[in-house]
Queue: 4 jobs
Job 1
Amino acid sequence: MTSIDDLARRLEQIDSNFDKDTQLKGQSFDKTENNSFGVPDSTDFTVFLSFEPQWPDKVPGNSADDAPTKFPSPLQRAFKQVLKAGLDTDKKKCFIDLATLFDLTTPSPPSGFFTEGGQESVASALLSAVDEIDPEVQPVIRIVCGEWSDDAPSKWEEDGKWRKTFEEIFWDGQGKSRLKKNKKAIVCVGYYRPILATVNKEGTYAPTEQWLKDRLGDVTNLVKQLNSFVTGLPNTERLTSAMQKFDAASYLTTLIKSGYLQKHISWNHGKVLAVNGKTMMTGGGNYWNCYKGDQHDIIDQQAKVTGEAAISAHRWADYFWDYLNNIPGSDSQSFRRSANLSEPPKWTEAVAPRLPTFAKDIRYGNKKVLTVSRIGDWHGKMKGVAYPIGIVDALRDALLNGVYLYFHNGGPRQQGAMTILTYAILTEDGEALRRLTEAATNIKRGVGGAVLDWFASLTRPEPSLEKQGSFNPYQTLNVNPNAWASRFARVCAIANAKESVILCQHRLACPPYAGEKVTNLLNEKWRLQDPNKWDGYLWPFDLLIAFGYALARTRNTKTGSAKITIVLATHCQDGTRGDWEDKASIGDLKKKLKVVMRGMAHLNSFTRLVPSFFTNAAAAADVFTHVDPVPENLIDKVVDERFIVKRALGNIKWYYNHCKIVCVDGRLLYVGSDNAYPSFNEEHGVWIEDAAEVDSWKKKFWNGMEARAVVPTDEPEK
């Protein structure tokens, strides 16, 4: 099993490859050890939405047999508990950070979550907190939000929906202040939705399409590196022949032509509350009406921490305020507004206050917390591009899915092998990749000793940026992969599991948000026909490879029962709740996993000089520790018996699984906002390592969730 220390060490190692301006420790990831779980009024680490503290008897039910709930909801209650526990007893400081996804596509504004309950509401608790502060001190509430529409500024300025939402929360609805004492308190609203207009304020074209076209040369170099990996090695003739025909640059050009990679892929999706550097809450639950007292059809998880992890949450928010205080002219959607809470709402574009210094000499406990997140804009030398850094992650997913589609004619061995090798080239450690390339050359010369020595060493060589022969796409672009630290940590933890893996997730495949135009263009270009046509779904092949490693590592455990168990959202085809559902097929998921695992076994057979050389290619960046892959003749049996995928709550349409949970070996637990399916939003979450706390979580939530889930019989391979 990996540990929090292992995950943090690897993230720090990746960071060390980049210049100081591009390093992300303290922003996208941060390990703290001065913490306790929960808050004084509620010491559990997790919050069970919508039924804290336990499952009711009537779930799952139906529309006529719902379990009754009332104000406050578990999320409203937890919000007030975390807020109260974080308040300064001396009343000398008040700095509160909020982050949420705000859905403004619904008829009713999301203010109900805050205003429900009158004097007992979340809004009243927030206003009371700032009003009790010393009148000479300025309390600050900063709110980072975002959503997926393309007309946020007009919603603020013209129809006023955004503006009125916050005025309903923080004023009395008639424009009158609800504060009695403090005259300096301010609220700052930041809308984070980096999006490039066709023409920016200066009248010049935004650089998106040209920047993407410039990357085609980098993709060509990547494919050349892939060729050098394979050419001349034993039994690779078919792979080499097929690879020479794969025009990756042309594939990406097709996606650019369709507009797929210019889609507005990034907005804040994190759900955070941080108070005075003392308490914090994060998870999957948004601060909107679906989570207020009378709503209970969304199943979700939140986590509460007291201690320095709260400072990490503030720093994450501060990163976005750095951007929002200096929004580039090419960004047509992001904006900021501020207002004094003691006066009628007069919104200005004043710069929001930055994070104050919080004391670190207070002892909160001895619990380790690893904060991991996704962050959005460019860093270091790439700041001038002003486009979400997630587009590089999207390019990686697009390339891996393209490789999988393209090589289907070669059969599952070739299809899986090429996907794994492409992923190996896209590892984060340029020096390890250079060493592997040299090792491949040595094998071709019949010299295997140096390679064996390298794989046998307990510690890999430190990365170096100066060695000739190394090609690393992230170094070329000056993009630090720690920008998506939460995704990396999830894959790393799962791949190194030794006993068990649990995922409770909305879904694992990103739906075809780009529409039919994109899928049709690609299917026509490659002449793809059923059953091999692309359906528009993006699959997380890094996660599938990690599953393959975990199944190989756990199949010989002493208990004999180690397995991967996944519970996904309802699989409904009637579209009654749209995006809350998961329309991807579990059969298709298992098919792709088996293909990847066949690729692992196939690559493992390439050379007798260095057993498992090519599967170790995927481990080049220490993402995975080595394990012999599952033999090809056992793959179907292992996946069918040990890879268990269920649908939540009887697969009925009245309840929806929105969790983003990962649990490894009964000790490591992730709670946050980052979905396991490919997505490129800004996220926040935390890992803990504590067997007792994980056992408590299982008893409160997971055991009931798994018992109520079902294995469907109507989701075949596509």
Job 2
Amino acid sequence: MKGWIYVLSNQSVPDWLAIGYADTDPAALVHQYGNSGIKLPYPFELQYALRTPYPKTLLQKIHDELAEKCVNPEHNSDWFECDLLTALRLVRKIAGHSATGEAFYGQARRLVEQAQAAEPPPSVMTATRLSDDEYADDTPVIQQVRTAPPIQRGQRPSPLIPPQPPRPAPPEPEKPAPPKEEPKWLVSALIVTFVILVIIAVFLGMRMFGYF
């Protein structure tokens, strides 16, 4: 069943907001609150209304998120100690693509206008007051044209960033190991041995030929 999630406020309790749902025109709730047992010196004001096919389901999720801010959790109150901007962001976030229309009023409209004046958003939003017949129409009456988010461009490097340390030099290629030298005493011993063998060979040769 289609319906509306609404956000009401009252100057008597500036830090409180009423977040509930209605099957028809949310503006009629302003008069209902004024005629109910809640008596406050200032009138109730409708700040925001969002149309969705699932008002009860989404409202339960919103109340669960704001459970710690409920002014009377024992009686399942619709009143929460929450600022308007936080409430608007939460309702729109939970509704997501199920929202078929939305309207901003009073302070909520001024917040949107201030945000648009400070930094024009990438989407074109129309928030207008609707008649009772338009609320009952099945066709969404408040349209929001969604566009792709702006391309994130890279940031220039800050001049305050300290210089990066130099890169380490590449390791030098390993040099071939020099040939292993034989100890000097070993060379001397080989020479002496060779000389002795030569002398013995000469001596044996002379003896064989009868020189002595």
Job 3
Amino acid sequence: MAHLQPAVELPAREVHSRRARLARHGHRFDRLARLRHLGRARRAQRARPVGDRRLRRACRRLHPLRPGAHRGRCHRAAGDPRQGGRGRGGCPHRRRSRRRHRAGLHRHRHGHHGGRQGLQGPGPRVTDGAPGRASGPLVVLDADSTLIREEAIELLAEAAGSLAHVALVTERAMRGELDFAASLRERVATLAGLDVAVLAEARERMTPTPGLGELIAGVHAAGGRIGVVSGGFHELLDPLAERLGLDFCRANRLEVDGGRLTGRVDGPIVDAHGKAAALDEWAAASGIPLRRTVAVGDGANDLLMLERAALGVAFCAKPIVRERAHVAIDRPDLSGVLALLGLRG
């Protein structure tokens, strides 16, 4: 070791100067990193058509939406002394899970929803209240042109002979050109005098959007909740929601007198604010934080709900919705939402 030279001891002034330069460079590098991160975030929020490759990339970006993702990070950090971990047993989520299991309150996330095939559900699942706590995500869907392929009120307007007028008003309302509540009253007024039997006929003509059954089964298998909130009508949606096994359903109600429609809506109208409120209420009732909520819609009356959710998905949507949603899906297949949730590769 004799060939080694003794370390040079720098003067205190030189040491201070080097440390100051390092701090300045480090601050500059941190600032550049923040700018790059903000640029990536802005690019990620552009509403563009989503293909298979972009869906896979979105899954990696949005992995915190996957049930248990935050727990995985806690478990890794618990065993890493560099992150303040204390080894085994350091994750609070694991300790809470053990306490629930000992108390007999732990539910297997696949046990309650297992066995679903296709579009058939357990039946009496639909509620507008609180079905209990959930461990997965909350997905809230619009109904017309999202959950189903049709505009439900147009099916009724066809029987009333007012289809052309109703279709025009609906299109303008979905583009944000008309107030939704006022436009709904105008459209419902054209249905006055219709026999309630037309409701059953309209229900028979409603067709679920492709991929809906796969989406419902995937969300339930992950321990999540899924519901529909609509500016349409309970009389048309309730039987379908029950058959599909949805957890929540909220819509307007048609006023009926003597077996005929009066042309008025019974009760408050479910507008854009009503849809956002439904998302908040169902998340609270299920014990799901808003950071694990997804909203899917196509019209201007869905915008507040899409912005309120952690992930707002424009589904075959109008231009105003595509511009403001987090991500856009242009293929009429709801199973693509599973990839955004990280529930499908």
Job 4
Amino acid sequence: MLITQFKYLENKIFFSIYFVFFALKRIWCIEWASLLTSEGDIFCFMTDFTNPNCLKFNKEDPKIEFKALNFMITLAKSFTWSDDKNLSELDEKDGYIEKKKSKYRNTPVITERKPVFFADGLLAMDILKSLSDNIPNDLIFCPSPITAIAKTVQCDVINDVLVWAANDEVFHVEVEKPLIINDFHCKSDMIRKDFLESLNLDSTQFSAAWMKKEFIEKVASSASKNPYGCIYRAAEFSKTLRDIWLTRIQDDVTKVYTNMGVISDGSLGTIKGYPYILPIVMSKGSWSIDRRFEDDTYLKMEIKRLNKMAKDQHVELISHCKNFLRENVIYQAFRDEDDSGSTSKY
């Protein structure tokens, strides 16, 4: 597992992060004295979980999962967040100084730092949220492969994809109409006939029924192949971090529309405080749920299905973490006494 911190370096971070994670994936590095949230702008967590979004630990090599889970739990319990800082007392070290001057006085305006806690999947994000000390939910993110997978089904010019997911197996996808970018509406309100013919398809294959069943099944089939090599993860980290940071550093970029893992704020009927992959709108360092399709009856039904999986997986994961701590950490505290000659295993 890798944890690393990045100081604010304008756009330079996005040129280097890919190589950092690829080159250092197996390095265990942490300075325990630097786990304060004021010490960095971006905290990245790359685990060795076989699938970082589903609770399916590697039974063939449990040592890898043991190390990843132990380290992630230890890290999460080490992070703290304090809300008691007075904004007027912030200085350049603890906050950002905006370039523009205050309206009423010739002094810089200091705004509170909003660091990013970026995990490689829903599992690490859930552990960080549940076991850390008061880290705000809206600062925790993770990437998702479902958007990229959905755009490769049938053709690579498919229009904007919105994803709602509890993990890589239980999700829902909607595609903006027209389905094909720069195309026009035809009688079927879907795709131009000559384009379909070039793909040996017909309009029924892009009907509403097809999009809600076969399309989802094809995406699920690709996602089940578990595309989580270190190069892929590093690339996803870089792209998703760019989406998060873009509206913070470029004044001309007001909004970014994307899909990523967040801790739900309860919008659209999701369960507040649980991790999901959701379509979000980034704006000036904050995010909100993209409300396109919010009135879709089928989406509302799908969200109920996602809620059940999100709740079940969260309960199982936290229970697993508690058992892990009980069986390993507590036992470890008594190991020295056991090794000293005592015959008791307690």
